[in-house]
Amino acid sequence: MEAFLISTGIVGLAEIGDKTQLLAFLLAAKFRKPLPIVLAIFVATIANHAFAAAVGAWITSMLGPDVLRWVLGVSFLAMAAWTLIPDKLDEDETKLAKYGVFLTTLIAFFMAEMGDKTQVATVALAARYHDIYSVVLGTTFGMMLANVPAVYLGDKIANRVPLRLVHGIAALVFAVLGVATLLGAGAALGF
Question: Membrane-crossing residues (predicted)?
Fold first, then answer.
């Protein structure tokens, strides 16, 4: 349950103001069909984060406990810093409208998540918790918590959320996980 809750919280917070949330706002404004957009976000996130979690599990199998502890600790600290950098939406991610609402959203979200901080976080979380299913469910739930309101409420909530505060909280969570990992908090789990 801890893997699910931490994964949900980290991705939910990190996603606020992220480029994929900006993409959700844009697609909602462009198509005005929230249900296929939300379904496509869900499918794209499951596919992307399942791949990322598999990479995290593979990394765990390749590294010894001491090396893994340092890699994860430093990765979480790097994620803390990265979370504080505002995202921008690439125009290439919004030029897929010829494929229809669902497919456009699916392709755009999947591509936008490649190498994104929430995908990298999913890799690290899967390596940290050794529980691919809980991590993928948690990161997907966190993604949906942040993006479904963006699709349905859009501009009504965009200006009311203090992005710096949310990013600061997410960065703090990543930093705490990084320091705890470096100090050996995962020793009981084998790393």
Answer: 37-61, 67-84, 96-112, 132-153, 165-189
